[in-house]
Give the backbone structure.
Amino acid sequence: MSGPLNSIRARLLISGVLFTIVAVVLAALSIRPTLDQFVRRNVDASLESQISVLARAVKSDGSLDQDRIQSVGPFVRRGAGWAWVVKGPAGVLRSQTVAAVEPRQGEGPPPWPRPERDRDRDRMPQREMRPDKPPTAPLKESRRWRSRSGWNESFYFRTLTISTSRGPVTVTAGAPRYIRDRMRDEGLRPLLLSLGVLGVGLLAAMIGQLELGLRPLRKLGASLAAVRAGEQRRIEGKQPRELDPVVAELNALLDHNEQALAKARSHVSNLAHGLKTPLATLAVRLAEPGRDPDGSLASLIAQIDGAIGHHLGRARAASPGAPGRPALPVRSRLDDLVAALSRIHAAAGVRAELDVAEDLYVACDPQDFDEMTGNLLDNAWKFAERTVRVTGRREGARVVLDIDDDGPGLTDEAAAAALVPGSRLDERGQGHGFGLPIALELAELHDGALTLGRAPIGGLRVTLALPARSAAEA
Amino acid sequence: MRILLVEDDAPLAESIAQALREEQFAVDIAADGETGAHLGATETYAAAVLDLGLPKQDGLSVLRGWRAQNRPLPVLILTARYGWTEKVEGFKAGADDYLTKPFRVEELVMRLRALVRRSAGHHGPRIVCGRLTFDAQMGGFEFDGMPLKLTSFEWRVLSCLILRKEVVVERMDILEQAYEGDAGGDSNSLEVIVGRLRRKIGHEMIETVRGRGYRLTAGAA
C-alpha cells in the first residue's frame, strides 16, 4: 500500500473530515426547510390574526363596520410590506399600501409595492390606515383568491372567504416574500454559523483524538527502539487494552529470541566445556613420564585450551572484535599452525608448502587469525591428496592468502552454499562446511574477505584477505 | 592421605587417580554426584576433588550438602567452567580451591597438599617433629636432614601422624587415610606398617596408645 492511505492517521483524518463535511452539509440542508416551515407558521399567525381582526368587521350583509377595521401586528409597520385587502359586495378596502397599487386582475395576488418605494407614504400612516375611506375601485371578484394561502412570485398571502347575505367577502392578508426570506435567513445565519463552528470543532476534536489515540502506538515504537538499543529487555509499561495482544506477542517474540540466543550461547558453552574434559585427560596423560619430553605437546594443549577459552569468552560477550588490533606476523603464525596440523594429520602424509614472505603482517586478533587459518588449513588437510599449499602476498591495503589443496574441490553450487550466512551455524557436517563459515565470519569481523575458487594444483582454493599492517607496527 | 575424586568422565578420573597415586595419595573415585555426596558425608578423606557438571547431582549441590552437614572436608573444584561468576559461586558454596580444566597435574597435587596441610592447622609447608621433617608442599620426609625413603602405605601413615603430631590419632582414622575404599585394611596390617616406620625413624617416635591408636611425638621433649 502506498500514498496517504498508508497512514492510519491519514485514513482516520480523511474519513473523519469527509464524514463531518457530509454530516454538516446534510444538517444544513435539512435545517432550511424546517426553518422555512417555522417562518411560514410565524407569518401565518400574523396574517391570520390580521384576517381575524378584519373578519370581525365584516357585517352579515357584507358591509364593513368601519370602526372595527384596524391593522395589527406587523401590518401597522409602514413600509414593512405587509398588507391586507377586503373585497366584498360593498367594494374593496385595502390597507394603506394596497391603495397605491392595484393588483392586476387574474394574475394571482397583487404585486405589493416594495417597501423602499413605500417610504414616502410612511409619513401619512394614520390617514391611509383608516379604512373609513370609501373604496376607490369597484369591487371585483377573483376566484383565484379563494385559496386559503398561496404564493405569487413575490408575495405570500392568506385569504378568508366569508359568506354574507349579499355575497362572499374575502379577507386577504399578505406579506412580501422577502419578509419570509429575511426571517428565514436571520434564523439560518446563526444556525449555519453554529454548524460551521460545530464542524470545525469536530475536526479539531478529531485531530486531538487522533493525537491521543495514536500516542500509544508512538510510545510502543519508542519502547521497541529502546529494546533494540538494549536499554530495556521487554516492552514495559501499561498499554491500552487494544494494544495488549500486540505487546504480548512482541514480548513473547522478544522472550523467544532471548531464549534462542541463550540456547545458542549455552550450546557454544557446552561444546567448549565438553572439549575441556578430554583435553584435561590428555593433559594429565601427557604429564606421565616420558610422554612429552620437550613439552611441545603440552603447549599444543595450551593452545587448544586458549582457543576454546577465547571463543567461549566471545560467545559470552557477544561483542566480537576488539579495537587496536596488533600487527600479526603471518608467516610465523602459519608455521606454528602447519606444524600442529602436520602432527594432527600425521597419518595422512600430506606435505605442506608455504610461500609466504616473512614481512607480511595483518591487523588481526592472533587467536582469531589462528582460528581462521587453522580451520582453513584443517579443511585443506582433510581433502588434500598429497599437498597443501599456502601462498601469501600483499595487494594494496590487504594481505591475501591462498590456501590450496589438491583434493576434489567444491562444485560452484557447493561453494556458494558453503558461504551462505544462514548456513553458518547449522552446518555441522563433514568437510568444508564446518570450518569455512567460522573462517568467513571471523574474516568479516576483521574487515577481511573470504572467497572460494579453484586451486591450480586441482582442489579448492580458499582466498583469505585481511587488512595489512606494516612491520613497523608490529 | 586419601582423596575423594568426584568426576564423571571415566578416562579423566582414572588418569587423575593414577597421577595422584604416583604422588602417594590414596584415591576413591565417585562417578556421579550422589555417590560422591554419600562418600564425602560418611568416609574420612584428607580432601576432595569435585567436578561441577555431574550426573544425578551437580557438584555445587554436593558441596552445599557437605557444608550443611558441617563436613570440614577440604574441597577443590575441578571444572571446565572458568568464568569468574562460576568461581565465585563455587567459593560461596564452600569450596577451598578452584582449578580449571585442562590443568597441570603438578598443580593439582600441590594444591591438594596445601589444602590438606592447611586443614590440619599448619601454616608453613615444613612440619617438624623432633628429628623428622615433613615438607607438606613437596611431600618429602627428611630424617636427620636426609631424605627418607617410604612406601606409599608408610608415607600415608606417617603423613597422617605428622600432620597431627603429638596427638593420638585413632587407628580407624589412620586406616581410612591409608587404604582406598575397596582395599580395606585392618589393625594387623597397620601394626606391620607402623613397625616398619619405627625401624626407619626410631621406636620412641611412634607411641602406641592401647585401645585407641598411635601418637607421633618428638619424644623426650
